[in-house]
Amino acid sequence: MIPTNGRHAHRRSPWPIALAAGIVAVALVAGIMIYAGTTNSSAGEQATIPPTQAAPSLSAPPATEDWPRWGVTHTQYSADQDTPEVREAAVGILAREPMLQNQHIMGWGAGNPEPSPGRYDFRDLDRRMKMMSDSRSIPVITLCCAPDWMKGGTAGRTDWSKNHTTAPKREHFDDYAKLAATVAKRYPTVKHFMVWNEFKGFWNQAANRWDAEAYTELYNKVYDALKKVNPEIKVGGPYVPIDHHDPRIGTSEVSGPWGVVDQRVLDAIEYWIKHKKGAEFVVVDGATMTKEQEQPLPDEFGATAKFSAITTWLRQKSGDLPVWWAEYYVEPENTGWSEEKVAAVQATAMMEFARSGVTTALYWNPQKKPAGECHGCVWVPGRGDEMPMAGLLSGFVKWFPTNAKLEQVTTSDPKVRVLAQPNQMVMVNTTDAELTATVDGKPFTFKAYEIKWSQRGPA
User: Fold this and answer.
1) Whether residue 312 is found in the same domain as residue 418
2) Contact 249, 260 (CB under 8 A)
3) Can you give the pLDDT at residue 49?
4) Are residues 383 and 436 in the same domain?
5) Is residue 295 part of a domain?
6) Which of 396, 454, 455, 446 is nearest to 416 (CA)?
7) Which of 60, 76, 193, 196 is deepest in the core (most CB within 10 A)?
């Protein structure tokens, strides 16, 4: 019903590939669209708007000693759409260590929340929010995407093929802010909101840059609307994708052996920082792969240093606002990596987040329909068995929340990465072979890409 990729389309560039594709697409379908426009003015899925729905009963988020830092974003498929047994198993996995859980208001598992002006359909969002509540989440909502009628489409219909590439029209920014306020009132346990997703629809083709002006205008209206609902609500943006290029291509304010960040991205962030009404945190996302070759440089583990470099820059530019990574990706497409290697590279990225002082990092959980393989998922669809990412997330939530005191420990082999706090450490073998190393004065033997946890301090 809601055709979005289980894995986020984070590598889609709005330029120049999109421009070329757009020209080709226009040439191919212009005649068809003209004919369709004369024969049928409506397009997309017809909405079936239910009677007024009562808001779900949601438990208050659990009290935690520290901000958990780590969490997941629910995507197109999650356990709320699976069997009761799988839902129960997934709820248990997520609740083991209460973590952040994020959901978009439209798309990625949620239908159109306002198919026609003032007429709402929160059935999907209610169901997803209820599962998050049942699994002891600290809930987060991403305010994306927008109903078709706010984007020039037909009221009462949803064209999912365009939903994730189009922003609301300026004349509907107030309508979108009103929708955001309606969502905040419906789910009062949610105190953290991210505004929009990856600047979707905010690319200025003529100027060949991000339209930070339009985005910031929308952000400010949403910010004001949410604060009127509850001044304690925390709002963040701009949630722009941090693209980077081969280090031999151009220069920018932020670069390293892993590549050179596109300066247009940095310019957009700085514009938002300067012109925003307010913010409790700054949000970005990104991948370790370059735009040119889809490969991480200098290798998959070394490329995770990008996350620390960007975080440091964001904290400096924003006046040390808390930094959120709404999404992060470390695996190129179609690599054939084992689940163990995926977890090992993910753990290395999480170490970078912790060391650089990231406040929040959300794993984009690529759950699929309850059948077949589910690479990189937190649990097995259709069965509910936990996968390696489940234990990795739980371990980091427990031992490395936001204010965890990090300590330096020595390792005899630099191929073993380690992150430590006074009572626990996590180690990662970054090679595809067994090795032995002395870490923190103790000998350890690692299988290929093995992650090990070890107690420190007094027993």
Assistant:
1) no
2) yes
3) 82
4) no
5) yes
6) 446
7) 196
